[in-house]
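Re: How this chain folds, sequence and tokenised backbone to follow
Notation: Tokens come from a learned vocabulary of local backbone shapes, not from coordinates.
Start of record: The labelled sequence and token lines come straight after this line.
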Amino acid sequence: MAQILAPSIQWQIKMTKNSSSARPITAKMWSSLLLNQKRKGAAKGSAKFRVFALQSESSTVNRLEDLLKLDTTPYTDKIIAEYIWIGGSGIDLRSKSRTISKPVEHPSELPKWNYDGSSTGQAPGEDSEVILYPQAIFKDPFRGGNNILVICDSYTPAGEPIPTNKRYRAAQIFSDPKVVQEVPWYGIEQEYTLLQTNVKWPLGWPIGAYPGPQGPYYCGVGADKSFGRDISDAHYKACLYSGINISGTNGEVMPGQWEYQVGPSVGIEAGDHIWCSRYILERITEQAGVVLTLDPKPIEGDWNGAGCHTNYSTKSMREEGGFEVIKKAILNLSLRHKEHISAYGEGNERRLTGKHETANINTFSWGVANRGCSIRVGRDTEKQGKGYLEDRRPASNMDPYVVTSLLAETTILWEPTLEAEALAAQKLSLKV
């Protein structure tokens, strides 16, 4: 199982001459050596020192880790803001740091910034400047203190959103008065797979071979069933520290695959929280020396894919009589199935096969407690006559800004023709 370790080097000094008889020195000896050097000055012709990554029995002179853990709060009001944005592929995360003169509480207090869009596939080399607009702030679990992570979206110098800026369009939909009135809630189940660094094969799998069949791994416990729990736990705590509305985590059906849930979140907040949680997960796997993939079908064959099931409800769905509103939403979703599928993640056709708890990508379906349908409704929702629906179609690499806003648009703002509605209701056996 991979262990979460902050990047650190454990320092120790040896003499380059007579190195065979050199002994590890303690922190006390290190201090004494430095003190003697200051007293004597630099001696000419003295033996040179080299630094080795070794550890003494009693203590470790770990200067790099000490610097990484430094709390600057007592000494300066300045903080470090890590500006985070989405790159040209639509799934790659980028970030860079800048110093802010004092702690901030709202994105509006932060300056806009820029980056080289020609290096991220988002601008031509002859006009490469792309502007970052701070949109959401989270506490930085890596630097601690008052330092922050900043979710940004990207614009041209003229103030136009660049094509890969999906947050801009989502914010427009979520600010529509009809959508605001319905207070859309989202609970997003982010699945991901951990890979061994050099071979890009799932964590815990024998290299070039396969583990035992699926069955014991889902929510499993034990060294032969759970691979990467430390990463999952570290991510869980880091998200809670940051203020991300993470609500749970579990091992998934395929060994080396995990899931965490974010929500319930309202409107645009759902996308901000998922993107920040993905960034934190990327940073943790970076430190652990493990590769993170959001590929919807990382291993071909009789293995589960990775999705990003999106639980969704509106105010009307959560109130008395809400089940009829849910049925109307399902009807609308059926009529825009192709539009949703095209926006639900690259490579999703490899996952949505009708097997491994998925519906076929070409066929829309719904059912109560049926994980093989496009849309699943829970037993409690059916029993209580109100609640939420689960869209099981989104892939693990979906853009949460796109998926959440599209669900709101289709179920709140979009109205089908009466003829199309009647045909769809008949086909799906829906009475609305």
